[in-house]
Design brief:
The protein is mainly alpha-helical. 81% of the residues lie in helices and 0% in strands. The longest helix is centred in the middle third of the chain and has 13 residues. The radius of gyration is 7 Å and the shape is rod-shaped.
């Protein structure tokens, strides 16, 4: 897994 992918996933969840 890439750190950038995880960071984007967490950011999207926080935005929700």
């Amino acid at each position: 897994m890439h750190e950038k992918v995880i960071g984007a996933f967490i950011q999207q969840q926080m935005f929700y």
